[in-house]
Structures are given as C-alpha cells and as structure tokens.
Amino acid sequence: ITYIPMASGFVYLAVVLDWATxxxxxxxxxxxxxxxxxxxxxxxxxxxxxKPDIFNTDQGSQFTGQAxxxxxxxxxxxxxxxxxxxxxxxxxxERLWRSIKYEEVYLRAxx
Length: 111
Known about the structure:
With about 110 residues, this protein is an alpha+beta fold. The chain has helices at about 35-50, 60-65, 65-75, 90-110; strands at about 1-5, 10-20, 25-30, 55, 80. A hairpin with a 2-residue loop joins strand 1 (about 1-5) and strand 2. It is globular and about 40 Å long.
C-alpha cells in the first residue's frame, strides 16, 4: 500500500504485482486503510491471472489479518512476508510507487 496525496488528504493504493514480469495484475484505491480494498485486489488478481505458489507482502495489518491471509490459505497459496523495516525485500513494488508518484501524481496535484 502507498498513499497518494490529494488536495484534501490522501487516498491509498494497493497493487498485486507479478515479481517475474513486474506487471501490475490488479489494483484498488481506497479512502481508508481497511483491509477490504486489499482483499478485493487480491481476489481480482486470482480470478484474472490464476493462483501463484507463493504470495509476498509486507507486515502491514491489512496483509496479516484473517481477511487477507484467509483468502491465501483457502486457495493453498504459501504466505511470505517481508522482514520488519526491510523495504529491500519488496524493492519492485517500492520502485513502482516511486514511478507512480514522480511520473504522475506529483506532476498533476489531483483534487
């Protein structure tokens, strides 16, 4: 999840990224940090692109809660989580956030 600054606060962006191709498989925006929009992105990616063997996330509460991990467990997908404060564990999505912000968001100053 990353935040997108807006004129009156933030919206939050979650993506499901394929590490092999670095392709965004699914994404969702939300005005809250609740897990539901992350679960929706996950379910959409699974429905459209199939089930991976392993799914990696950071240790945010949206990804460690039953709503998210339950979908992975139900589908027989192994759960992998980054180390605490280890941004390098998920460098591909961190690079995506940088590109989105510097090449789009900061240039447009969305309302």
